[in-house]
Here is the input.
Amino acid sequence: MSSLRTWRRLLPALFVAVGLVGCSDQNSEKKTPAAAASETTKASVAVPIGNGFDFYVLSLSWSPTWCGDNDPNGKSSQCEVGGNRGLIVHGLWPQNEKGYPDFCPTRQSDRVPSALGRQYLDLIPSMGLIGHQWRKHGTCSGLSQEDYFAVTRAAWSRLALPSELSPARQQAHLSVAGIENALVGKNPGMTKDGLAVTCEGNRLEEIRICFDKSLNFRACPAVARQACRKDSISLPPAP
Here is the structure.
């Protein structure tokens, strides 16, 4: 009898324990999709899909090289002393397998409203350059201004830059192959035939990365052939 009474006292506690385990399992199952979502790559995030071209080239300019040639006194916001700018977005260029379209007819305005352009000054630090990129390249994307610049940011976010390409206070010297290897090693899916490191004399000028319309890395032999032929180049320091 004492054993029976003991079990009767224990049964409610056992039911509670079983219920807690069941709830825990259910909560684990509910968290699984969120956990899986957190592992989704940036490339799988939906982006507006353009039309009228084959792929994109994301062109990144080494700002100190441009500033040294065009604004050595740092009058513009891009080149101001202390700005510490290294690679900036030159533009996102719709590209064809042979050649590229530019200045395409569109019902969109030629002018980029300042309210829109200011949202992208962290990537393209000049309203003049933002407007030029839209008129020359964005009009050929088949996208609205808002979507074109949204895709530009998404392409930039898709890319992981190696530490070798961080802005520095002292001039650095790197091999072109070393820059390519660092980029490929940092970005799964990227290959050397999907990028080009260009130079202005002995200095780094631009890095061009090819993406498909969904912003997956892709090969682009015609672009890759534009790469600098020098063994090593310098990276001028940020002002």
About this structure: The first strand starts at residue 55 and ends at 62. DSSP finds seven helices and six strands in the chain. The chain has two domains: 2-39, 47-235.
